[in-house]
Amino acid sequence: MTAFRYTLWLIMTGLCLISPSANADQTDARLDPLFAQLKSITDHRHGTELSNLIWAIWLEVDDIEVRQRLHDGMIAMDRGEFESALQHFSSLIQRSPGFAEGWNRRATLHYLRGDYASSARDIKQTLLLEPRHFGALSGLGLIMIRLREPDAAIIAFEKALAVNPHAANVRYHLERLRNLVQ
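User: That's the sequence. What structure does it adopt?
Assistant: Structure tokens below.
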């Protein structure tokens, strides 16, 4: 086990022992040290591993019904069954409005449907609940590209990279936009 993975394992194990019944989502105590590490490490591979771990925590939810709605919505969205996905995500949000990832998944769905205004509204709610949500910030940048607002897209992508400097797709979009704006 590499030193980095061992450190991650220690953090995760220690935090689980401290608060075994903690609610897992954007309020999870494991996130703060992970975000601190995400900003401080320079190795891209380790940054990707940390990013994936953060996503996994964001997706954790204790409520079985909410978990099932999230799962069903993600499956429906992956299959292109957008109306079904919308019903699942909206039901999830109604049941658990404080769960940031529910809002983010519905924002993604709205984006895929071309409903950028609804997507932006759900991203706003995601960011109110989890200001460090680099996925939502990246999504906002993509919306701004679609709306032909390159300056706003640049700002959103810069904020996403400030939180997660290892997001290669965000860096790509940001560099591309900066070249276009010049």
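The first helix runs from residue 3 to 18.
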